[in-house]
Amino acid sequence: MANPILEARGLQKIFDPNSPRTLVAINNLNLSVEPNEFVCIVGPSGCGKSTLLRIFAGLDAPTGGEALIKGRPITGPGRERGMVFQEYSLMPWRSVEENIFLGPEFSGRSKRECKAIAQKYINLVKLEGFEKAFPHELSGGMRQRVAIARALANDPEVLLMDEPFGALDSYTRIILQRELLKIWQANRKTVLFITHSVDEAVFLSDRIVVMSARPSRIVLEEVLDIPHPRTQDNPAYGKTVKKILDILEEEQEP
Amino acid sequence: MRKFFCDVALALIVPIGFLWVWHTCSLNIQNEVVLPKIANVLSVLSHPQADLFNMGSLSRNVIASLVRVLTGYFIAVVLAVPLGLLMGYSKTAYKMLDLFFGLFRPIPALAWIPLVLAWFGVASMATVVGIEEGEWYPFFSNIKLSMIFIIFLGAFFATLGNTVHGVRNVRVTLVESTKVLGATRLQIAYKIVLPAAAPQIFTGMRAGLSSSWTALVGAEMMPGSISGVGYLITHAYTVAQTDVVIAGMIIIAVMGKILDQVFALLEPKKLKLQKLYR
Q1: Structural domain spans, chain A
Q2: How confident is the model at residue A147 (pLDDT cuts 50, 70, 90)?
Q3: For chain B, which residues make up each domain, given as ranges?
Q4: Residue A108: exposed, middle, or buried by beta-carbon count in 10 A (0-12, 13-18, 19+)?
């Protein structure tokens, strides 16, 4: 087995320790993600899946255990880990291309380089013609395309996605899922993707990690070898969805 | 177009009714001190160059007031915006300063007058710049430090409060999505927090201008004041020239409105983009 690119060892996250409102979000969680793998995390709402992703992004620090990137402890955000949020993460005063080249701009690239990079990713997410548009002029789906392009424009090794399609209508969602797969197949990034839609997880991933309700542990890791493109009429697809839904249902019981 | 005329007509009904009541009352009262006729007030307003009872002309007094407001206001903005950015951005600065400024905030600018007079007396900008005579002396000596301070206080807290609020309310996702792109703390402050808070800072500056204009009139009523619209009103009152008092009040209203409108027009287009993205 190759060296994992992301790894959690005995990870623990407690919010407000020593207070009556204390909350154990994650307890003793172990997970590893291989390079180029597409891993989806599903679990009941409030189960700490976003917390896990934020720890990998370096936005939250664990209270116990370790989170590692290529064997090194994560101490803060880094360029090798890009992140796509659920919504409202674009700068309203910046045009599409200006949003996309934020990463290169922060690392001191020239305006010309920035524009060239932005153009490349605008083409990748099929937003040609919207270079100068502002976020408020875009639909929800287009905004998420920009958010994905912005994360990719920084050329990260890992893409952390926190329910990126959660706020979209089902049709737009399906289109974006297909395009994300294409992008992933072409660029071979590692993707860690959070969703509460089992369907989405089965459609996208190499491996599905099912988390329990708080305090979260991993209750199932399911490796999927259904060939892409996956469709509803593939019996394996339906079987996997059902298996995961059954486990989640058990988890929801008090 | 038709809608425009309808809106204008709607907006004018109450003011016209008000003028009519004023007109009728003034005819019945027949006392220029209690309520002057509209025509008399208009005649004061229509001769802005005429000297009013040795108090100088209307236009000269308006200019004196404007210069004071803009001076005090400018100092307030220059201090309040950076301080507000610091307090909004740094939790330590906020914890240190929020209570302190919070205690000063409810004190009306005018309550400072006795203290301010004791501190600055009749010292003016002329004293500060060191001009004791010459053609610029009357100009600078008219800008009394006490008045500047009162106007400054009026604008300072409105601008500060809004700036702090604006910075603290920048959407967390915006800051986090920049952090994950590898931005430094300085880059986040300059490229994300400042533009994201800009609309609110702008609102604060606008509110500050309007409260400094309000504070001005009180400041010009202070002893030692020898020009300005506030001075005009107080002294017209002592010589029982109520038409000049009302003319002064109208000037204050109109100038305040104009300043506010000019400010609104200056709002950069980019700031409006944020209100559209929700």
Answers
A1: 91-155
A2: very high
A3: 1-30, 38-276
A4: exposed
pLDDT digits (tens, 9 = 90+) for A184-241: 988 888 999 999 889 899 999 999 999 888 777 888 888 888 887 788 778 888 888 8
Look at domain B38-276 and name its CATH class.
Answer: mainly alpha
Contact B173 A89 (CB under 8 A): yes
Write the residue in B182, B271, B273 that is nearest to A78 by C-beta: B182
* Predicted pLDDT of residue B278: 60
Report chain A residues whose CB lies below 8 A from the CB of B173. Answer: 85, 87-89
In the A/B pair of chains, how many CB contacts fall below 8 A?
79
> What letter does residue A193 receive in the DSSP assignment?
E
Q: Give pLDDT tens digits for A55-114.
A: 999 999 999 999 999 999 999 999 999 999 987 899 999 999 999 999 999 999 999 999
Measured between its terminal Cα atoms, the distance across chain B in Å is 31
Q: Collect all residues of chain A within an 8 Å Cβ-Cβ radius of residue B170.
A: none
For residue A20, say if its preceding peptide bond is cis, omega within 30 degrees of 0: no
Whether the CB-CB separation of B154 and B223 falls below 8 Å is answered with no
Position with higher pLDDT, A248 vs A149 = A149
CA distance A2 to chain B (A): 26
pLDDT at res. A159: 94
Total residues found in chain B within this entry:
278
Contact across the interface for B173 and A85, Cβ inside 8 Å: yes
Cβ–Cβ below 8 Å for A59 and B277: no
